[in-house]
Write the structure tokens for this entry.
Amino acid sequence: MNKLENKVAVITGANSGIGLATAKLYLEEGAKVVVSGRRQEALDEVAKDLKGDFITVLADVSKPEDNLRLIQEATNHYGKIDILFLNAGVAPVLPVSDVTEAHYDEIFNINTKGPILAIKEALPHINDGGSILFTNSIVHQKGFDGLGVYSASKGALRAYARVLTSEVKSRGIRVNSIAPGPIETPLYGKMGLPEDVVDEMGKGFAAAVPLGRFGKSEEIANAALFLTSEEAAFINGVELEIDGGLSQI
Ligand SMILES: NC(=O)c1ccc[n+]([C@@H]2O[C@H](COP(=O)([O-])OP(=O)(O)OC[C@H]3O[C@@H](n4cnc5c(N)ncnc54)[C@H](OP(=O)(O)O)[C@@H]3O)[C@@H](O)[C@H]2O)c1
């Protein structure tokens, strides 16, 4: 229950799904957690249930000034940062023939530019030996219809993580990624698709997963804890698929 005792963790997209499950687990493991999201009402709601040493910070990761303020508020409150978990993301669906500039900008600004700018702001404040974790996805390993721009945004992040791994090596900062397969989170309700289409898509995903089901946010949180804890002290630069085997068949 103390794998992250006295560690300071900043989590983006922490009011929902994978980010929220990880915030809960980190707090249980003794971390001080900066719970960040883009909607104040959602942050207020989750703050009622979270237990432990945490603050909430309103920050839209697509905005450079918000990334700066997120890191400033985190360090003003807790000093240095040990874990930066870049988890916020969106996955609106559009076939390649319907892609618009707005669709591209929304996805890349949140999924790719956001983490890149948050890292730039955070690096001077991350303790040597600290940990940076991305929430990536298996979508850049397999083609899923309608997820072209989303997949490209995550593929770009994977490439960025490799360079980052090298550039922070002198400070002993570990850089890893988790790549979930289909996980039961509110993400699917935000894809801009009718409910029946989401239901059908869900059945298709579940059937394609060798373990025959969606994963749970808590199952991703367990991996996020492992990769950012001392137990993973020699694991660096990897992307861990947590997908019931979907990416491997
Ligand atoms: N669920 C899956 O099957 C799956 C699979 C692979 C990868 N992922 C990745 O997992 C991550 C977490 O997604 P999830 O499934 O847990 O979905 P989720 O419950 O919708 O969580 C996404 C979080 O990111 C936040 N967010 C979105 N845009 C933001 C912005 N501009 N600034 C700050 N926060 C923002 C969301 O805020 P709001 O509540 O305001 O929307 C929410 O808190 C994402 O990076 C996603 O790409 C998910």
